[in-house]
Amino acid sequence: MTMPSVCKPKTAVVLLDTRASTPDHERAVHQKLADGLARLLGCPHMKPADPPTADDGYYYLPTETLIDPQRQATIGICDEQDLFGGVVTSPYMATKAISHPLPANASFPPGWTDAFARQASDALLRGYTVFSKADARTAAQLLLMDGPLRVKPVLACAGRGQQVIDSADALEPLLASMDDQQLALWGLVLEEDLSKVETFSVGQVRVAGLTCSYHGTQQLTHDHQGAEVYGGSDLVVVRGDYQALLQLPLEDHLRLAINQAIAYEQAAEQHFPGFIASRRNYDIARGRDPQGHLRSGVLEQSWRLGGASSAELLALQAFADDPALQRVHASTHEVFGTPDLPSDATLFYQGNDSELGQLSKFARIREHGHSE
Do residues 38 and 117 both lie within one domain? Predict the structure, then answer.
């Protein structure tokens, strides 16, 4: 593949695991993603021998959204061509905490701005972000006037740890278990609780001079304990930006979801100085509020690798390999147990994970669309 001149050549793809511990199945997926990114960039995937510096010319695959652009610049992450993921200036910007305004007179961390939620208001559900227990009680009182609310820890993934409450008293045991310092740093979200919810994904990835954008849906599955968990994503991916995505024939609710993701992203780019991201993913919920009104809004962003990234990688590879290709249908699958894999599956992990048990993760591309 010929690299566009705007892209800086990279010496290697380096996995940057910033977490205290990473489960076996995730580590295996990350390694496979790094291999695929190295193929796209025309360089090896390797482990650096020494602490990296800005002169190494690495392309990074971080496991989390990175914080502090100045610190990341010391290892060579200066713009979106240097990583698969994103960089923000404050911890709260890396979480769903940005998706709501503060209640009146609430405390907030350094770097907080109300301007984001003001600009993105039409793309958001009704809710509040808080950074103290007192403010959580205030926000709960405001929301409970209209019906039940959902308490959402901002560091939890895939809906884990969320609780629906219908009284102020029910909030207290949840607050009792929270650390004040962690709450002050990361925040907590309280949000209107919707029924009959559908969750859509809208996203964009930019790697090796390629841009592709997508909309899709998420599937749920049951783990070995019977809990309902993320089971994969089904994506329609187009070559190009969000405007290319909007050229597709779309149902009204999908067009709304895409436009809400765009509005959310534009607010971030305008009000979060230092924000960069080559991987952008947004979850948009559509459901009914307690009064029966249909509501749609962005739940959260993911400016880092995620559950859909194996499908994103296969789409990028397909577009790189075939310049005439304009659209693909890509999907990811997480199956507990040992399924018979489809013949077109690209396996990312299969094994007996130490935490989750027997698990298979694979991705597929099933449809292709060429330009006329």
Answer: no
Residues 225 and 256 in one domain: yes
3-state secondary structure 188-251: EEEEECCEEEEEEEEEEEEECCEEEEEEEEEEEEECCCCCEEEEEEEEEEEECCHHHHHCCCCC
48 Cβ contact list (under 8 Å, min separation 6): 12, 14, 56, 58
User: What's residue 369's pLDDT?
Assistant: 64
| Residue 207: C-alpha distances to residues 44, 105, 109, 110, 305 (Å) | 15, 42, 33, 32, 13
Q: 102 and 77, same structural domain?
A: no
Same domain membership, residue 100 and residue 87: no
Please state the domain count of the chain: 3
Q: Which two tokens stand for residue 209?
A: 């001079």
- Token pair 């007179």 is found at 105
Q: From CA 233, how far away is CA 13, in angstroms rounded? A: 25
* Closest C-alpha among 69, 71, 89 to residue 79: 69
All residue ranges of the chain with pLDDT < 70 are 1-7, 157-160, 367, 369-372
Residues 275 and 79: their CA atoms lie apart, in Å, by 9
**pTM > 0.90: yes or no:** yes
Q: Do both 335 and 200 map to the same domain? A: yes
**Sign of the alpha-carbon dihedral angle for 136, 138, 143, 149:** positive
**Are residue 37 and residue 148 in the same domain, yes or no?**
no
Q: Residue 150 has what pLDDT?
A: 95
* Residue range 239-267, pLDDT digits in tens: 999 999 999 999 999 999 999 999 999 99
Domain span at 143: 95-124+126-193
| CA–CA dist 7, 75 (Å, integer) | 18
Q: Where are the alpha helices (DSSP H) in the chain?
A: 24-41, 69-73, 115-119, 133-144, 172-176, 180-186, 242-246, 252-271, 309-321
Name 13's bridge partners.
45, 59
At 358, list the tokens: 């027997």
Cβ-based burial of 240 (10 A; exposed 0-12, middle 13-18, buried ≥19): middle
Radius of gyration of the chain measured on its C-alpha atoms: 21
Q: How far apart are CA 83 and CA 278, in angstroms?
A: 7
